[in-house]
User: Fold these one by one.
Assistant:
Number 1:
Amino acid sequence: MNDFYLGIEHITDFAGYDHMLFLLALVAWASLKDAWRVIVLATAFTVGHSITLLLAGMGWVHADGGWIEFLIPVSIAFTAAWNLRRGAGKREAWGRGLTYFVTVCFGLIHGLGFSSFFRMMREDGASIVMPLLRFNLGVEVGQLLILMVCLGVASLLRAVGVTQREQQIFLCAVTGTLAVGMALERLPF
């Protein structure tokens, strides 16, 4: 299977729902009018996980899978809490910059989770750079598809009277609660 389509399939597969939860928590406040900012956030995440995918794929970084599987839902819960604490209209410039930085950092963690999957798909001795690039482009396209559907639904909900803050509270509560449950199930100690 082509690495590009493998990336799309990997991100849109409901078995990887933790990634979808992260995306929902990340954009809990957004609708279609925020599409450009959401695209930049998704790309920041992709940059982070691309870095660790490359480093782990080259064998330069090794992480304990138990800790990574624990830290992924922790990153989702943190993202939900971070977005929940922000009321509508409280998007200070420093907060936006910190959000992008944290999103890249969480991408690093999630990339380590992807790395074992990606390594299993590669043959020993095979070049990793171009397949990894194609895989990451597929992941990015898959993320953007998921996000545009979510933003479309959010815009429809806004049209029928759901406020930005109500959407934000609901999505952060759901994603945060599910993430805390996942983290407790995956305690590495």
Number 2:
Amino acid sequence: MSDDRSEAIAQAEERGAHQLATEPRARAARYDRRHGRVLVELTNGCSFAFPARDAEGLEQASDADLTQIEVLGLGVGLHWKRLDVDLSVPGLLMGLFGTKAYMDRQRAARAGAATSPAKAAAARRNGAKGGRPRKAAVVKRK
């Protein structure tokens, strides 16, 4: 094996050991049907919970499917075999319930559903003007 490759492997092993020592790892996980949350116990004695159906891939899952949680490897992830869903424990702790695209869609949906007195007043003013303006017709030139 070349020296460069041996060095790269040694560095990767060192990074992996550091991550195992410093990043949160799951010891156990279970689904709480009553509250609709996944409860995760960490190796450092802490625990956390998250709303199961807020996570990508779990939105439409049945309670029976949600109870089938497996802790992956050294506690870096959670796996639902019947749903073919994997979630990262460090990601969940950071409030990431899926891929960037999924999180962007979730944020946009919440923003569009937000209400405020200013938004309601703007909607009333727009309605008094006849509602949303129609799209302008596109004129094709030859």
